[in-house]
Design a protein that fits this description.
By secondary structure, the chain is α/β, with parallel strands linked by helices. The protein contains 28 helices and 27 strands. The strands form seven sheets. A six-stranded mixed β-sheet has the order 5-4-17-16-15-6. A six-stranded mixed β-sheet has the order 23-25-24-27-22-26, with no helix packed on it. The chain has a five-stranded parallel β-sheet with strand order 10-9-8-12-13, with helices on both faces. Strand 9, helix 10 and strand 10 form a beta-alpha-beta unit. It starts with a strand and ends in a 7-residue tail after the last strand. Bound molecules: ligand MGD (2 copies), iron/sulfur cluster and molybdenum atom (MO).
Length: 733
Amino acid sequence: MSKRVVHAACPHDCPDACGVLITVEDGRATKIQGDPEHPVTRGFLCAKVAQYLDRVYSPDRVLYPMRRIGPKGPVGQRSFAPSGQPGAAVPTCSETWQRTSWDHALDEITSRFRTISREFGSEAILPYSFGGTLGALNGSAMDRRFFHRLGASQLDRTICSSAGEAGLESVYGIKLGTEPEQFRHSKYIIAWAANIHGNNVHLWPFIAEARRNGAKLVVIDPYRTRTAQCADWHLPINPGTDAALALAMMHVIIAENLHDADYLAKYTVGFDRLRDKVKKYSPERVAQWTGISAEDIRKLAREYATVRPSVIRLNYGVQRSERGGTSTRAIAMLPCIIGSWKEVGGGLQLSTSGGAQFNTAALRRPDLMHGALGRDARIINMVELGRVLNTVNDPPVKALFVYNSNPAAVCPNHNDVIRGLLRSDLFTVVHEQFFTDTTDYADIVLPATTFFEHKDLQKGYGHYYIQVSNRAIEPRGECRSNVDLFRTLAERMGFEEECFRETDDEMIDLALASKHPWLEGLTRDQLEHGALRLNFGGQESGVRAQTAEVRSDVGACATQPFLPFAHGNFRTASGKAELYSEALKAQGLDPVAEFNPPSESRHGTERKQFPLELLARKHDNFLNSTFSNVPSVGAMEEAGLLEICTEDARERCICDGDPVRVFNHRGEIRLQARVDGKVQPGVVSARLNCPKQTPGFQSINALTSEKLADMGNSATFYSVLVEVERIQAETMK
Ligand SMILES: Nc1nc2c(c(=O)[nH]1)N[C@H]1C(S)=C(S)[C@@H](COP(=O)(O)OP(=O)(O)OC[C@H]3O[C@@H](n4cnc5c(=O)[nH]c(N)nc54)[C@H](O)[C@@H]3O)O[C@H]1N2
Ligand SMILES: Nc1nc2c(c(=O)[nH]1)N[C@H]1C(S)=C(S)[C@@H](COP(=O)(O)OP(=O)(O)OC[C@H]3O[C@@H](n4cnc5c(=O)[nH]c(N)nc54)[C@H](O)[C@@H]3O)O[C@H]1N2
Ligand code: SF4
Ligand SMILES: [Mo]
């Protein structure tokens, strides 16, 4: 019997990018555990990935190419037979799908692509992918080469973080932030729109360590998350009003002379303009918008500026809002105002993804697009899929190729998305591990490997370690990785460029050969054995990090702390933190930062018949729509709830447990009321669900809109108004 332990890395869309050890016995994975050698993720996994064997070996995996033989539309799932639904006659998998060979599937795809290109132009083909895997190879490499070479439309990948990224970069010019290991040295920690217990669990032990040493934890979140419940202070802010709060904090800090004049003078531009701007954001004025009292705003500002080191864990919840870019921008200014970038345990983290600068141009080859089209292909915003599929005509989208994503669950304006996906003239291919909401509308489904079954290079967006994820087992059934799939498709299309023949190892080497100094000395060979920290010049790095025990013995970071902006070094055009931005002015935005209430909010222009602000949030134990179909993980979450406060429930004669209809002008969903104090008056909360596992195939995203945020063309999942009414129990069915 052979037994070995393989080093891998979790590729899911999560800041932690855990080091993973997979035990393989006789070719079968028998155990998964966290890699104790990983200095940030330190030997434990989140609850969902701890059950990963159930996912890899699930009887529901797609193992063979399948072609449609039934009509497009919802298909019943084995483990989730939707009994008791209206029109319970949902076709089964066998009525819908017929197994086919890879050969036939690839022939059909390439011949359809050729016909569509001839008739409508290659831009009538649209790739659609997002965060299924964030591996450098399987996330965005061979696929991009393929679609660039094909001359397909480009996808603007805006569904998650682009407003926040634009806001952050407008101040710093780069996505860098405080490393998680430094949080143990902080004395004042603000979790700002950051559901740490749910979405970023590996930061928690560092926060716990800081708190044992007297640090205070403050949570700014309209929802009483588990993190908020454990905090020293929870400020339930009104959704979408964070820019106002940040501006008011700066108002207090500057008025009380608590700012770092030296840091501001040396390393920022526009402080005078900012000082003028924040004058009008008095705590009294901002209290009306944010729902946080003037007294609390003053206290927060004073504590943040004086209890040192203070750090902000800002997360992306803040920017899923119409003004999300500006909110992020205003918050990103705070550590510059108090100079906390100079301190170990100070600063701010939204993302660390600007650290590992792989050679993305070589991985993705955008130049191939110019070869194919002689110009850039048109760009389609993924958030607008519903509108695009139904209305765009120049050319229309005739083929949709989905991988690493489940748009029929995660995309806003769900009803239009489904209407588009149902088009009989739309040729849809989905490369997937499971039959998802989106495969229900596919013409062809192709089987995809999990990270157990393919090799990749992995960075994190919540720390500065990179690692190679080794293949632990052979692909199940006839599954192929994204890289393999697009390599093969390129061959079938007759694409002759050398890059389509590169092996996985060659691609990893290419990714690492970006000549960026922080990657210097980091080789595939080393990374196959475990995580390595980026090489932050002059500091101890490229050295295997020490174990958690050793690290806490020395009581500090085993490697030198990385302080990205201690001496300025911002990557903006001016080289300084831009508190005033000419580039934003040119875009018609306020060059400093201005608060305007989102139009769909209690203070907005669209608050007519729909008075409640909806947070259509993520589950703590799923990953967007992923994992919800694994029974052992599904059991950890209660599905189908609408959380509402006592006052709003009473006004509508709703009691805890009552069935309710949640609706607006875009759509509706039926849920069960939960009156448990998690939200404040005026706010209701529900979870991103999978229609496939919901009675009647309803989606919370039937309520969310395609409206874009102020920066980055980003999604606005948390700027949504709804009304709620009690319904009769029978109509829940
Ligand atoms: N368990 C789990 N982990 C995940 C995911 C998951 O689905 N489940 N998803 C992954 C992905 S794709 C991402 S992008 C990250 C996201 O991780 P986060 O950035 O943490 O994202 P969210 O959960 O969207 O939002 C965080 C918090 O912001 C709050 N919030 C909403 N609106 C506002 C507002 O206007 N102001 C303030 N201050 N707070 C607000 C929400 O209530 C929520 O608790 O997590 C990743 N990790
Ligand atoms: N209402 C509401 N909607 C939201 C959000 C919200 O908070 N509320 N969050 C938004 C955010 S932040 C994000 S990032 C998006 C997420 O949108 P998506 O990135 O579409 O997220 P997932 O639901 O995780 O779907 C990923 C799919 O990829 C598949 N997959 C995993 N690995 C591989 C692989 O190696 N190859 C292939 N071919 N497939 C693979 C998985 O099985 C899964 O079905 O959703 C957004 N939608
Ligand atoms: S989902 Fe996040 S926390 Fe869970 S194992 Fe993967 S990287 Fe770690
Ligand atoms: Mo995301």
